[in-house]
Amino acid sequence: MNLLSKAQRQLKEITAKDIKDLLKNRYPNEYSKMLIDDNAMVKRKDYYISHLEYTRAERKFNLLVFPLFEKFQNQFRIFTDRINSLHEQTVVRDETLIEFFRGVNHVEIKEENVYTSLDLSLYPFDMVGDSFAKKQSIFFFPKETFERSCPDCKGFRYVTCIDEECKGRHEWKCDECKGSGQVTCSRCDGRGRNRCSRCGGKGKVEKEEFRNGKSVKIKEQCSKCTGKGETYCSKCKSSGKVTCGRCKGGGIITCKYCYGDPQRKGMIDCPHCHTAGRIAQIKYLTTQVERQKSELFTEVGDKAISIKKKNIQKHYISNVSSELIYENINGKIKNYTDNISGNLLEKHQENLKLSKINYPLLLRAAISYQIIPVIKIEYKHFLTNETHSLIIVNFWDNPELIMTTNAEKLSIGIGSTFRYISNTFSKWFNTQNYKKKEDKRKEIKLMIYLIKADGINAEEEKQFLSREITSLSIFTNSEKKEFFNLMNATTLSELVKEDVEFSSEEIKQEVLNKLEEIANVDGSFDTSEKILIEKIRSL
After folding, report:
1. CA distances for 229 relative to 49, 118, 136, 340, 503, angstroms
2. Domain annotation covers residue 68
3. Cα 280 → chain centroid
4. Cα(212)–Cα(97) distance, rounded to whole angstroms?
5. How far apart, in whole angstroms, are the C-alpha atoms of residue 230 and residue 520?
6. For residues 429 and 452, what is the distance between their CA atoms, to the nearest angstrom?
7. Whether 245 and 355 share a structural domain
8. In which domain, by residue range, is 192 found?
9. Cα–Cα distance, 255 to 172 (Å, whole number)
């Protein structure tokens, strides 16, 4: 069976009747306690798990701009020889030259991804048999591959020095010292002398002496300046001039950037061509072909259904064979998609940002996928009459039942005592008269025994019992648990006299009548049911 046939089977409509049949055959124990309306709404969500094996192509425009030194001329001529006779594009025969020029000093490399379509008759992909070659040819563009004089130096190889002071002079008179090599001393301002630091320029200093037991201040001549108030400047040695720091006393500034020889005075190496004098350009197209895989998990259907991803994935069969759905060999396109695989391929393309027209370009695609339907439906527990829901995963292939809630979970802290108010009983159980709780408990127990007597929980019997019970709210948790255990038991214990003792013979007869009604509700009064009723009657 191919993928489409399997998918169509998985996508078949699922009705409430289909669900009931499946539960009856595959999950009989659970189904025995369920009431499902034939017209119940079936909520559905289909999970698509798809694996794509694909081949993609990416292309780049490459531009190399580099100084064309004389030693590279011969290699570059391989690109430019017979250039007028070449087509718009030409395959590079010796790709080592591309790598060579990519590695030269001062090369500028520009790369631009190709996103638009290219004529595959002009730029075909290399094939190895029916497969796309891993190594693809490089195309270069002759009309965009050329050499020219450097636009900055006009082929001269040098340009005027760009230093703001030099401006091509190379040497010039020092602006600081005006060519003298000396400048005014900054310490003494050219005076050659500085104020005495000891006396502050006063020529005298004060000192303290003790005379006749008293402290007396006296002034005396400063010993440092000998009373002159000034000292000789040590920085300029009293000359008032020091060596110019800018020109180092030479009076001339020499540019450290440009040449000083007569032929190149005031010139520097052309920063554009690095003294080659010529600039070369090569434009070419590179292609990268890759084989890759992609997994996609998508959902279609009712958003009310929520289920863990792992519960879906475990139903996926991993060894499903892939089917080729698309191929583009140099413009010869083969499309094998159907409405399902085509839609999945589009989703993969969107996710992977692949195109069938532009780059990155889809060249080949093979897909495997599985559809796993998940349904959700409501049911009533026939003892409690409470509404619950169930989920079935992978309905048609390998169905898994997931109970969203525990229908037989007992509420903590809730327990009924002897409450037998006639109005309540009448509402909950449709009884004709006032009944005691214990009578009702025994009645329910016997009804459970009866519907399990023939080993078949007929739908009519469950519905009858459900109508009779309506609710278990008057019973304690332990009493409810007793009912649930009886329904879940594979074998039931023998009835004893205590089980069939009622508060009156009248009530016992009513119960026996009801049991006979249940036994006949499915249209057949089974022998095992007759035996059970007679046993109850005899006890």
Report:
1. 103, 93, 92, 109, 139
2. yes
3. 44
4. 107
5. 140
6. 21
7. no
8. 171-269
9. 9
Same domain, 442 and 493: yes
Q: pLDDT tens across 481-495, in order? A: 888 888 888 888 888
pLDDT in tens, 278-334: 999 999 999 999 999 999 999 999 998 999 999 999 999 888 899 999 999 999 999
* Pairing of the two strands 267-269 and 278-301: unpaired
315 and 426 fall within a common domain? no
31 and 134 in a single domain? The answer is: no
Shared domain check, 437 and 337:
no
Say what the pLDDT of residue 490 is.
82
Number of neighbours of residue 457 by Cβ within 10 angstroms: 22
Nearest to 375 by CA among 46, 50, 48: 46
CA pseudo-torsion sign 76, 79, 83, 89? negative
Residues 6 or more apart whose CB falls under 8 angstroms from that of 101 comprise 64, 66, 72, 75, 76, 107, 280, 282
In tens, the pLDDT along 31-59 reads: 988 999 999 999 999 999 999 999 999 99
> How many Å apart are CA 241 and CA 253, to the nearest integer?
19
Whether residues 438 and 470 share a domain: the answer is: yes
Q: Which of 29, 46, 6 is nearest to 297 (CA)?
A: 46
pTM, full prediction: 0.72
SS (H, E, C) 38-71: CCCCCEEEEEEEEEEEEEEEEEEEEEEEEECCHH
Q: Tokens standing for 340?
A: 């399902």
Q: Cis peptide leading into 373, omega within 30 of 0?
A: no
Burial class (CB in 10 A: 0-12, 13-18, 19+), 327: middle
Q: What is the DSSP letter of 142?
A: G
